[in-house]
Input
Amino acid sequence: MNMRGMVKGMLALPLILAVVACSPYYTRDGYGYRQVSSVEVERAIAANPHVESHSIRVRTEGNVVYLSGELDSEHMREEAIRAAYSVPGVDRVVADDLVVERYSYR
Output
């Protein structure tokens, strides 16, 4: 390898390292760096027949999904969480604000 090739290689290395270092979201499935989109999660929840998806709000930050809203049953809540985890790349689902609505009948 000549001197020019070595210099080019040395200049390219920091650029490659910077690109890799700036990609903070790594999926568990091993396919590489990727950020989960809210739309993917919303579609997965909407595809579940046991969940009223219109009452759920979805927000993503990297590979973490945040679910909020009110549902009619604990079963729906569990199914919504399960659907969110089914999206490739989701590492964690935070559903503290996804609550089961309690009706009071008089």
Helices lie at 3-21, 38-46, 74-85. Confidence is low (pLDDT under 50) at residues 18-25. The two ends are 85 Å apart (CA to CA).
